[in-house]
Amino acid sequence: MSSGILTIPSTAAYAAPPRNGAGLPSNGAAFRVEAVDFAYDGTHPMFRSLALSARPGEFVALLGPSGCGKTTLLNLLSGFLPPSSGRITIDGETVTPEMPALGYVFQSPQLFPWLDVLDNVRFGLRMAGRLPEAEQRDKALAALALVGLEAAAGKFPHQLSGGMQQRVALARALVLEPRLLLMDEPFAALDAITRATLNEELLRLCGRLGQTVLFITHDVEEAVFLADRVVLLDIAPAGIHSELAIDLPRPRRLRETRRLERFTTLTDTLLERISAIVGAA
Ligand SMILES: Nc1ncnc2c1ncn2[C@@H]1O[C@H](COP(=O)(O)OP(=O)(O)OP(=O)(O)O)[C@@H](O)[C@H]1O
């Protein structure tokens, strides 16, 4: 944790900075899932000897048919679900839900309706109780500025659109300066235009802040647009079906990137693989 308002990594701050997909220095965390077995109630196996890792600053999108265990994997990675065997580490340390390195954004923004936007964003800092109130407010305002919502600080969630609420949820995660951002279909409930805007904003923020991201989506185009690597899950308990490196140039803009032949090739490849999984089920 830094003591500044929100730490934007600069090249000078790192002797040998790892590079994220945007080619910028990264302060992201590495995660590693090693030989993980997991079964709900001990009887419904979801994963057997699962292995997955990400390098600092990498943007990993997780795709797979409904029920294959994407959210389960996210809950294992966050420490909310303990594996029955194997090991999950963030920068070499066994994960726990309290790890300050972790940030979450879910499909529903889950804002507190009785708190204004600033206090929603400040909530985690208030609970941690480590900073004076004025500093908490400064940090919350800086996080809101990152998502373009500084002017909405005094509004309440019901006065915001769905897209604005999801931006607040993102600011609430970012204010804690997570080094690994776990996102579970964060834009799935939004209209296509808002979703496109938020996809571009997320990439801009990740390029600037450098955190590692695990992003669950059902949308193949969204996965290809955002990610450095797409991980495709098979029907449980088969685990990972395959991975695909997304070698599209950055920075990415939706309209330009979608027009690239390589974008079509990558999305087609994934769609074919998903059809094969579903067809075989
Ligand atoms: N707490 C639980 N107890 C028992 N079974 C569960 C629990 N949570 C999820 N499951 C089951 O585990 C399987 C995987 O669920 P999970 O939510 O991880 O899948 P998913 O790939 O994220 O699905 P979707 O794409 O539909 O969101 C499903 O069959 C689900 O019913």
Please provide a written account of the structure.
This protein has 281 residues and is α/β, with parallel strands linked by helices. The chain contains 8 helices and 10 strands. Strands 6-7-8-3-9-10 form a 6-stranded mixed sheet, sandwiched between helices. Strands 2-1-4-5 form a 4-stranded antiparallel sheet, with helices on one face. The longest helix has 20 residues. Bound molecules: adenosine-5'-triphosphate. Adenosine-5'-triphosphate (ATP) binds next to strand 2 and helix 1. Keywords: ATP-binding, Nucleotide-binding, Plasmid, Transport. This is ABC transporter ATP-binding protein. InterPro entries: AAA+_ATPase, ABC_transporter-like_ATP-bd, ABC_transporter-like_CS, ABC_transporter_ATP-bind, P-loop_NTPase.
